Amino acid sequence: FNCCPCWRTHVEVRLNWFVRTSAFQGWISLAIIANMIFLSLDHYEMPTDLADFLYYSNIILTVVFALEMACMLIGLGWKEYCSDRMNLFDAVVVIVSIIELFLESSNGLSALRCFRLLRLLKLFRNWPDLRAKVDALFNSLEELTYFVGLLFLFMFIYAILGVQLFRTRYELDGEVQRPNFDNFL
Fold this sequence. Notes:
Blueprint: H1 5-19, H2 22-41, H3 48-83, H4 85-105, H5 114-117, H6 122-126, H7 128-166
Protein name: Ion transport domain-containing protein
Subcellular location: Membrane
Main location: membrane
């Protein structure tokens, strides 16, 4: 690339435009959804045809995500690419996916497959409505913890009150030494 700086600049500008288009983001979102569907199809003692399909689709989707990362690195440049934490997170997931491909071919760890599930978090960037709903959910968690704490406090108070009021009025049968739910009728 150093011999032709004008060609390099032209490619960088075109890739910068390309990775910012909604069509590119849409195709990557579809690839993420397809990857999640394929991951959910994996099960114990599955037919060999399905196992082969999932293996080759994993290879294809890993290549797609690696190409996405390469296009974004070239188009955005190192500085802009690394300034977004979601890009760094995606780079880690892509690298782990590539490592998992090599380990899987040598009967290695398939536990790294769980890291590919984290790719779902990229959908939050591509779908602003979904991101707004998830942000609202996480913002309400603080309020929910106060509510759960207050609910626990009331339950604790009424449990102590119930023990104090009814401890002398409840007698167990001689046969069964503990309260049970065997004889409702």
